[in-house]
Amino acid sequence: MATISIKNNLNTQSNVLVLTEKFKNEFGLPEKVESYILEQLKKEDVKSLQYNYIGKLINILIIDTKTGEHALNEKIRKHAAGFCDALNASKKSDVYIYNQTKIDDLSLAAAEGLCLSNYQFIHHKTKDKKGLNSLKSVYIANSKINNAKVDQLNYVCQATFKARNLVNEPVNVLNAIGLANAFKQMGKEAGFKVEVFNKAKIKQLKMGGLLAVNAGSVDEPTFSILEYKPAKPKNKQPYVLVGKGVVYDTGGLSLKPTPNSMDSMKCDMAGAAAVGCAMYAIAKAKLNVHVIALVPATDNRPGFNAFAPGDIITMMDGSTVEMLNSDAEGRMILADALHYAKKYKPALVMDLATLTGAAVAAIGTFAMVGMGTADESIKKKIHTAAETVNERIAEFPFWDDYNDLLKSDIADQKNIGGPYAGSITAGKFLQKFTDYPYFHLDIAGPAFLSAKDSYRGKGATGWGVRFLFDFFKNL
């Protein structure tokens, strides 16, 4: 990835992204070049301009600082992503961000857009390496931004890339044990504890949901506990994150159709990647907050003694579930993790999961679906973080009326609620395993994209890492 740093020795030999309300030639461009740029920017419909000056790219974005803060930052990120493509196409290795506005932090948005859009997942390519990105360094010039903010942005970008790498890896490279090992390595790098339960320990704990989903697989499940606790954290009760770790989902005996369904199901552990890699960023930045992440992990296959529609599964909390669709497996493994979280007496539990097609059908890939029992003050902080990084939340109702759709004639509840409100009934299923403030986030839409979307790219987006970091940073 490109590294972000502060460096002020900008000159006419530098590639530069200029953020300005009214362009001023402050870096020695010849008069003819300056006149051309100013003439072009006078045109009503021109809000940005790119100019190649003796082999160096100059990109100018005209900014209306009256635009709302979040919308303005997102516009800058997206613009920077487009410039990143031009820099790589021209084989440029560095770029300066020159901010002519009075809002210093706009430079951070530009750096974030440049860095995140520079991601590539090509390490499995053995022959054609011609498309390797050239951009290595992003410099922030003429800025009052302190190094701590830049360091944090680097950590978040690194963590987002780690999440994208995990999600993009196919299951023959990264199974449940591989995912747990990746968390162990991140713990060593960043300074947080990682404990991994093997199948024997999972059986001892009677995690019936996780064991049921794993019954069709040749690979063993894992249950990872990641904990970051500074010496004197601000919170007396820990915050707990739970991530769905289905490393590959065939749908089990309720087999998914393919193509356009099963072929991208390596992404079904995007929630696990998000919480694990957010822990990496939190620890690297040494945020003064006690956070625990729980990741139940397995693949979901139709082999061996795979759980079958109609089976009764006894969960870790002792309740029973009539399993009517083995493709509703994520909630089964999350339920055991949510019950396990009770032991920490948490201030809040948030889970992230690529849980339902219903969430995608409802709001597409532009946001995540959210719902829960957390109080309004916590919800406000959650939404603020989501808006800040543009990983927005469409909050759905969480009325108890939806519980009726999960009633079973022969067990405590069913694992599906019928054809309507599927993302909500999934959330209500999970709520039954909680006794603490809880917020559920369904990231099925934005976690993995079939086409490039600006700085989020194509394939794994790393959705959730930036949101979680911002939430904990601002608590």
Tell me what the structure shows:
- With 475 residues, the chain is of the alpha/beta class.
- Helix content is 33%, strand content 22%.
- It has 13 helices and 20 strands.
- The protein has helices spanning 31-41, 69-89, 106-117, 147-168, 176-190, 199-204, 208-214, 270-284, 330-340, 357-363, 376-388, 422-431, 465-473, and strands at residues 3-6, 16-20, 48-53, 56-62, 94-99, 137-140, 193-197, 222-228, 239-243, 245-249, 291-300, 311-314, 320-323, 348-353, 368-372, 393-395, 413-414, 438-442, 448-453, 457-460.
- The strands form 4 sheets. Strands 7, 8, 9, 10, 11, 14, 15, 16 and 18 form a 9-stranded mixed β-sheet that branches. A 6-stranded mixed β-sheet has the order 1-6-5-2-4-3, with helices on both faces. It has a 3-stranded mixed β-sheet with strand order 12-13-17, with helices on one face.
- Strand 3 and strand 4 form a beta hairpin.
- The radius of gyration is 24 Å and the shape is elongated.
- The two termini are 28 Å apart.
- The model has no long low-confidence stretch (mean pLDDT 96).
